[in-house]
Amino acid sequence: DADVTQTPRNRITKTGKRIMLECSQTKGHDRMYWYRQDPGLGLRLIYYSFDVKDINKGEISDGYSVSRQAQAKFSLSLESAIPNQTALYFCATSDPTGGDTEAFFGQGTRLTVV
Amino acid sequence: GQNIDQPTEMTATEGAIVQINCTYQTSGFNGLFWYQQHAGEAPTFLSYNVLDGLEEKGRFSSFLSRSKGYSYLLLKELQMKDSASYLCAVRAATGANNLFFGTGTRLTVIP
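Above: the input entities. Below: the structure tokens describing the complete assembly.
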């Protein structure tokens, strides 16, 4: 089983709909992140959390919200989806007490807003 | 602000050596990472440099020069499975120590 699991893996939704992307991890890491990836733009940070109930805005947080109710779970919501939120979304975790503290990524959620 | 530059695409021949460059300008510096990402898949960690010099790990090596804001990833004995995007990421020395990613270099290995 993957250490960082995202659901759903693929989703098509209509403009104006609310949608939630889920992320769960079994790595026991405190830090969790949501990124989006667009062709030619690379990975951009949406929100991050360093602990339960800790929420911080990233580079591109407008139009998104997150919830960190448990160490293992970090969900991303689009309150009213719009077409330019069509992208590949990745959840990631890291452990600041580790030597390299690299980020571990989930398999991604491909979201299409029509 | 953060600015990370790397070439968009590269092509190399199976069995050859390829060097992928990355230059960066960031608000402080606290480490540079290289990730490999196959199309539609998650990025996977390749290497980490925080001090100047070369880090070698099997067929892959990564070099860092902090004074020049420069890194490269060297792939030796290229294999077809090395066709992927290679992402350069810098950890800025801000309170959050977040990673900032370049746009990635898509490497195509040809027979």
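Note for the figure: DSSP finds no helices and eleven strands in chain A.
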